[in-house]
């Protein structure tokens, strides 16, 4: 493994950490409705749990209401029950074969709790990135120990990985601040 491989590997893993963090942020709801909120809710479909998006059409009616249109007649009650029992705090109502899911307004206290959740998730992502930095630096030190690279190359590799880490952490901070602003916007 060369220094370029170490850097490329660390860069790819850090990019995956950012993608995982972005995915985690989509699960944290803001005051506005978006169909992705229901992605983590699974409904029993002939004995196996499947995401709601695989048994119904999920769309927005307005900024605060999601509509769920089941593709089969008998799925309405199951979908409504799954949404109600999820930990999202949503209260769906059925109108014929259309399920309306109004998004409750966030209280100030709940907004502050959600910002803490966002900060915690951001901190966990930063820890993951720092662990990746440590692993990359250990690889470089191992190459130096095995006399495959010089001390200067090892030092340069450590500096490059540190710069990559700093950029990644700055991007995570930017995502955290953006999500916090989104949550705190009334």
UniProtKB/TrEMBL annotation:
Ranges annotated as spanning the membrane: none
UniProt keyword terms in alphabetical order: Cytoplasm, Protein biosynthesis
Main location: cytoplasm
Source superkingdom: Bacteria
CDD domains found in the cross-reference section: RRF
Subcellular compartments: Cytoplasm
Domain Ribosome recycling factor: 21-184
InterPro entries reported for this sequence: Ribosome_recyc_fac, Ribosome_recyc_fac_dom, RRF_sf
Cross-referenced Pfam families: RRF (PF01765)
PANTHER family found in the cross-reference section: MITOCHONDRIAL RIBOSOME RECYCLING FACTOR PSEUDO 1, RIBOSOME RECYCLING FACTOR
Function: Responsible for the release of ribosomes from messenger RNA at the termination of protein biosynthesis. May increase the efficiency of translation by recycling ribosomes from one round of translation to another.
Family indicated by similarity: Belongs to the RRF family.
Name of protein: Ribosome-recycling factor
Originating organism: Sphaerotilus microaerophilus
Species lineage: Bacteria, Pseudomonadati, Pseudomonadota, Betaproteobacteria, Burkholderiales
């Amino acid at each position: 493994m060369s220094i370029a491989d170490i850097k490329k590997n660390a860069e790819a893993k850090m990019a995956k950490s950012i993608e995982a963090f972005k995915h985690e942020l989509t699960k944290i709801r803001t005051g506005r409705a978006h169909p992705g909120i229901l992605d983590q809710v699974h409904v029993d479909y002939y004995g196996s749990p499947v995401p709601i998006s695989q048994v119904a059409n999920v769309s927005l009616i307005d900024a605060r209401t999601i509509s769920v249109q089941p593709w089969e007649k008998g799925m309405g009650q199951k979908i409504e029950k799954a949404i109600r029992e999820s930990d999202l705090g949503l209260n769906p109502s059925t109108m014929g074969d259309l399920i309306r899911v109004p998004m409750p307004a966030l209280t100030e206290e709940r907004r502050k709790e959600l910002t803490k959740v966002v900060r915690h998730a951001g901190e966990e992502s930063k820890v993951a990135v720092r662990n990746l930095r440590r692993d990359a630096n250990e690889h470089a030190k191992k190459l130096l120990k095995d006399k495959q690279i010089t001390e200067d190359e090892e030092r340069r590799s450590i500096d490059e990985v540190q710069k990559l880490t700093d950029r990644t952490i700055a991007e995570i901070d930017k995502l955290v601040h953006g999500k916090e602003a989104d949550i705190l916007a009334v």
